[in-house]
Amino acid sequence: MLQVRIIAVGKLKENYFLAAQAEYVKRLKPYAKVEITEVPDLPCPDNYSPAQEEQVIKAEGEAILRRLQSHEFLIALDRNGEQMSSVEFAELIREKETLGLPVSLVIGGSMGLADEVLSKANLKLSFSKLTFPHQLFRVVLLEQVYRACKISRGERYHK
User: Fold this and answer.
1) What is the CATH number of the domain that holds 91?
2) 159 within some domain
3) pLDDT, tens digit, for every residue of 142-155?
4) Considering the domain boundaries, does residue 157 fall inside one?
5) Both ends of the chain: CA-CA distance in Å?
6) Domain that holds residue 75
């Protein structure tokens, strides 16, 4: 069975995001074991200097790095990463499942991911050049993992 772990900076706070996350985790149960790991998002006021912002990114990155495992396929979600279709993403997920590799997907904080995290990634993946709220993006990511599972098994799912 596919093992998927989402490592996300920050907590889901709004009930509608929590409900959407729970719904997709429930839908994924027949296809994958899903684990969601949250790391604290650190405050970064608008008046922080670039050096202070870099310290926040680095600290969040260190929290992510402590949770990584050596035997996983690591996908860093990064707006400068590779873009792929849902079918291509499904093929990637299916390949990793066939190889028995757990897949971890990392969502950074509001300022992105630390270079140390990006350098450890097997793949840097972009869903768009647009910026998404992190809480919403977690739900979008779960939906795409669900879609990938359905596609890779040849099951019907709306296009």
Assistant:
1) 3.40.1280.10
2) no
3) 999 999 999 999 99
4) no
5) 25
6) 2-152
Contact between residue 101 and residue 71 where contact means Cβ atoms under 8 Å apart: yes
Q: Which two tokens stand for residue 67?
A: 């949770």
Residue with tokens 């400068």: 80
- pLDDT tens for residues 116-142? 999 999 999 999 998 888 899 999 999
Flag whether 68 is in a domain: yes
H/E/C letters for each residue in the chain?
Answer: CEEEEEEEECCCCCHHHHHHHHHHHHHHCCCEEEEEEEECCCCCCCCCCHHHHHHHHHHHHHHHHCCCCCCCEEEEEEEEEECCCHHHHHHHHHHHHHCCCCEEEEECECCECCHHHHHHCCEEECCCCCCCCHHHHHHHHHHHHHHHHHHHCCCCCCC
Tokens of 125: 């993946």
Number of domains in the chain: 1
